[in-house]
Structure formats: C-alpha cells, structure tokens
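Kindly inspect this chain:
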Amino acid sequence: MEPLYTLAADPAAWVALATLIAIEVVLGIDNLIFISVVTNKLPEESRPKARLIGLSAALLLRLALLGTIATVIKLVDPVFEILDQSFSWRDLILIAGGLFLTWKATKEIHHSVDPDPGPDILNPAVAATSVGAAIVQILLLDLVFSIDSIITAVGMTEHIPIMVIAVIVAVIMMLLAAEPLGNFINANPTIVMLALGFLLMIGMTLIADGFGLHIPRGYIYGAMGFSALVEGLNMLSRRARQRKSATPGAS
C-alpha cells in the first residue's frame, strides 16, 4: 500500500478520490431514503437518534468491509450454478436485500392506501415501530448497501486510503442530509408515497442485479429525478391554489 503522502502528490489520486466520493454519495441516496422513511415512523424525539445510529452503523460497516477487502473481493466469485446462471455471495446478498426492500415498500404502500390499515399505518403521528425495530431494519439494509458500495470502490481504485476517505466523506454528507430529508418527507405526505415508490424500484433493481441483469444506475436515478421534479411542480401548484383560496375576494 502506498504511503498517504505519496498519494497526496499524485493528481490521478485526487481525481480518483473526487470521482469515488461522487459515486459513493449517489449510491448512498438509496440508503438515505430508506433511513428517512423508516425513522419517520418513530416518535419525533427518537428520530435523530435512530438516524445517527443508522448512519454511524453504515460508516462502521463500510470501514469494517474495507478492513477485510480480500474477503469482500471473493464475494463476487461464483459459489453455485442453477440453469446456467451462476450466483456469488454478493448476488445472494443483493437478492435477499432486494426482496426485503420490496416487501417493506409494498407493505408500507398497502398501509398508506388502505383506509383502515391498523396500528402500523405510515403516519408520523403514530409510533408504528420501536427504535430497536427501526435500527434492525436499517442495519439489514446497511449491510446490503455497504457491500455494494465497497465492491464499487474496489472497482474504481486499488488504494485503500482513497476508499476510506471517500467512504467517510460520503457518510458525513449523508449524515448532514438525513435530518433535512427526513423532515421534508415528514412535512409533505405525498412525498412519502414517492419515496416508497423509489424504494420499490431500488429493491427490484437489487434483485435484478443479483440475477445478473444489471440496470444502469443512471436510468434509475434519472427516473427518480424526473419523478421528484414532477412532484415538486405538483407541490408548487398546490401551494399556489392554497394562497389564492386564502386571499380575500379570490374566486
């Protein structure tokens, strides 16, 4: 492993670091949306604690996986084959995580559209889950996203210090964005359904990746960005109508 001062003098290392930070931040969006949706079901005073624990666990998992990089690399080696389709441990982890995410998003969508869903409705006013249960769910998805993140980092650079710095910077940025994103989702009920739709799409993407059907992330994030733009226009339209109806003499 090259000394850190040697890497600091290498322009290529800085380019690799900047690129990897950008990629890690983008990959962290999935993790952040899930954490925001899950923690918004907690009592308001418990949400910052759960977000901090969830993102701290994400950082620790990523750093721990970097410490066992030789083992992580082997996760992409095929372990068995079914009907000419080989599966590695990474594939199995992605499929399991995708199934969990799909189940979770589908369950919450059902609770949102059912007029009488019971005590587990996705309602910020209802403490539908405990802090412990939320953290367990976050940890499960942290593991899936962390493995994907580290394997991506390995494919970008061979320098461990660059990977460590990129991961730390990306998680710090996620930590700074977690509360504003969670509050924004909580303050805009229609955003909840949009976020759940994103989670459903991400879950299906993980399953497809696990079966060797790679969907370019640019398509996924492009669709998410376009949907968010349309929802933003809807929000502006609703607020404009509300202001107009609140104006005296408005027809």
Observations:
- The chain is about 75% helix and 5% strand.
- Residues 73 and 117 are 44 Å apart (CA to CA).
- The chain has a mean pLDDT of 77.
